[in-house]
């Protein structure tokens, strides 16, 4: 399936020009959160949102000084008022930081979008908060943030009639995930075992797990009448950014120069996810369109793993914050 991932990148780079984000919806009263927004895809996504006239953008960053510098750059390019962007601290590798951020966000008058852009790609095995660090950042704490914000998202929809979009950056590399790691009595135990972990494929696997959880959440939410939300997983494709800095080599750098999109173009796919209608709920998006993901997502094996993994994820999240998943 790795060949399918590479084919997706090549096709998108050679034959697709992503549309510049636009909308007929008045965004002047909306509040949107963007994590990892001081650099790369997050920075360019925030710039697009500012240009589109979002009333308030919350730049969720690990280092406040870097966030302030990015805010200044964005506002200089868009000409929007200083009051339209706020800088809030969050460390996606810290459960306590995620909890504090969500508690602060619960006081917002409304919440119309969350772009969960902060992510990690590494081939080095490190445990963090009991999880391999890639899993902790890309999966566990990302969905901790989702569930902690879910009551706020649902309240907002009930008050405004606008369903909050929770957008998690995905990748065509989910097609190349090492599936053998999922064939275990307890998936997280296998993934958090330094002796068994296949770290060369950990980033692709994390994106597969994100897709599983995204689809399962959307499916289970259909049974609820607590207030609508939309969750989707857009793939910006390979973009020039610092995400793959550990992989840098002459060959990698040459391939990136030839095949990778600019971060600005890639960010169009992410902003599109924030603007997409409810047909995107639970979906994988590529080139700003809903696309069928890998067979190991949609076939019976994938469905079984999806449900098993999600139950494990719920167990982890409940251990971190008891009752947090009950709002689904």
Write a brief caption for the model.
GO terms for molecular function: oxidoreductase activity. The protein starts with a helix and ends in an 8-residue tail after the last helix. The strands form two sheets. The protein has an eight-stranded mixed sheet with strand order 3-2-1-4-7-8-9-10, with helices on both faces.
Outline the structure in words.
It comes from Trichoderma gamsii. This is Short-chain dehydrogenase. InterPro entries: NAD(P)-bd_dom_sf, SDR_fam. It is a single chain. This protein has one domain: NAD(P)-binding Rossmann-like Domain (Rossmann fold, 3-Layer(aba) Sandwich), CATH 3.40.50.720. The chain contains eleven helices and ten strands. The longest helix is centred in the middle third of the chain and has 28 residues.
Report helical residue fraction.
40-55%
Overall pLDDT level: 92
CATH superfamily: NAD(P)-binding Rossmann-like Domain
Order of H and E elements:
HEHEHEHEEEHEHHEHHEEHH
* Low-confidence blocks of residues: none
Radius of gyration from CA coordinates: 18 Å
Q: Which structural class best describes the helix and strand composition?
A: alpha/beta
CATH domain class name? Alpha Beta
Biggest sheet strand order reads 3-2-1-4-7-8-9-10
Query: Which percent band covers the strand fraction?
Result: 5-15%
Shape: globular
How many structural domains does the protein architecture include? 1
GO molecular function: oxidoreductase activity
Protein name: Short-chain dehydrogenase
InterPro entries: NAD(P)-bd_dom_sf, SDR_fam
Keywords: Oxidoreductase
């Amino acid at each position: 399936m790795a060949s399918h991932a590479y084919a997706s990148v090549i096709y998108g780079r050679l034959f697709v020009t992503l549309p510049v984000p636009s909308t007929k919806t008045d965004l002047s009263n909306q509040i949107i959160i963007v994590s990892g927004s001081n650099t790369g895809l997050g920075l360019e996504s925030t710039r697009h949102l500012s240009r589109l006239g979002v009333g308030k953008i919350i730049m969720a960053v690990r280092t406040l000084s870097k966030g302030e510098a990015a805010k200044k750059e964005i506002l200089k390019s868009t000409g929007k008022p200083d009051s339209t962007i706020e800088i809030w601290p969050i460390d996606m590798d810290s459960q306590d930081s995620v909890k504090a951020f969500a508690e602060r966000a619960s006081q917002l008058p409304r919440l119309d979008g969350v772009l969960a852009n902060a992510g990690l790609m590494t081939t080095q095995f490190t445990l963090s908060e009991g999880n391999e660090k890639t899993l902790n950042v890309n999966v566990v704490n990302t969905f901790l943030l989702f569930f902690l914000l879910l009551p706020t998202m649902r309240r907002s929809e009930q008050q405004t009639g606008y369903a909050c979009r929770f957008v998690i950056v995905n990748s065509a590399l989910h097609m190349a995930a090492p599936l053998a790691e999922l064939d275990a009595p307890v998936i997280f135990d296998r993934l958090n075992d330094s002796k068994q972990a296949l770290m060369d494929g950990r980033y692709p696997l994390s994106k597969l797990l994100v897709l599983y959880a995204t689809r399962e959440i959307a499916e289970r939410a259909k049974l609820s009448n607590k207030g609508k939300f939309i969750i989707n997983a857009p793939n910006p494709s390979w973009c020039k950014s610092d995400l793959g800095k550990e992989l840098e080599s002459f060959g990698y750098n040459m391939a990136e120069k030839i095949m990778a999109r600019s971060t600005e173009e890639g960010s169009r796919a992410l902003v599109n996810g924030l603007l997409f209608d409810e047909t995107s709920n639970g979906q994988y998006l590529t080139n700003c369109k809903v696309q069928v993901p890998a067979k190991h997502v949609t076939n019976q094996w994938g469905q079984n793993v999806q449900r098993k993994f999600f139950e494990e994820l719920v167990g982890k999240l409940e251990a971190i914050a008891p009752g947090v998943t009950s709002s689904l």
